[in-house]
Specification:
A five-stranded antiparallel beta sheet has the order 3-4-5-6-7, with helices on one face. Strands 1-2 form a two-stranded antiparallel ribbon. The termini are far apart. It is 40% helix and 18% strand. It folds into two domains: 79 residues, no CATH class; 122 residues, Nuclear Transport Factor 2, Chain: A (Roll), CATH 3.10.450.630. Strand 5 and strand 6 form a beta hairpin. The protein is α+β, with helices and mostly antiparallel strands and 265 residues long.
Length: 265
Amino acid sequence: MAKCGALPIPDCASLIRATTADGANPAFRHNSQGGMTTRDWCALLVARSDWSLLRLLTVGLIVAMSVAGAVAAVMLWPQAQAQAQAQAPKQQPAPKQPAAPKQQQPQPQAPTPAQIDRNGVLILIRSTLLALDQANKTGNYTVLRDLGSPDFQVNSAAQLAEIFAQERRDNIDLSGVAVIDPQLTLLPQIEANGMMHMAGFFPSVPTQVNFEMAFAPVGGRWRLFALSVSFGQAAPTAPQLPPPASPQAAAPAAPKANPPAAPKQ
């Protein structure tokens, strides 16, 4: 290796001879004609080497500066973020809104008196009990079912026969309700669900008929919704007398005293 300037480079003459050994290199031919000498070739190679080294140094410097900037940015980012948070105005918490008052549950609507006259009440009570009386006597509850509201008709005739089986076995005659006026213990009133509710009894002899009924408005008419019937004694019963007291034993009679004897003369 020969030194050309300050950098180690290959022997310029050898390099020229190696590349132009066949005499086909125009540069060599130019050399041989008195153009560029070996020294010129060496100076050209040194200049190219210096330029390549300068480029490498420049690229290395740029890379080093980029890495240093990235490291500095990474190290300074937490501090910058903390300063930004400190300088940002603190948001005050929103004022708490007063809690909405609890909604009170609506109170159940109180029953109201039904707008119906006495004759209308009598017709509803008597027609219902007479239909039940005929059903109990015949065992056919179809008519009673057909007189009811759609909710009452959910029960089949067979189910109604099972419901009123005990009244049918008691063989109680209800035909007296046609001529006896009932006594109401609950005047007709409209419940919250729109039903008309009433209760009372027939003080018939010898059996009292207790009833409770509810009617639903269907097509502008009151139709049977629910029915309950029970029986009880109507005639007042006499209070039981206390058992007779046992006779007391008679006191023994006192002995009769003999009169004193008269003195002898």
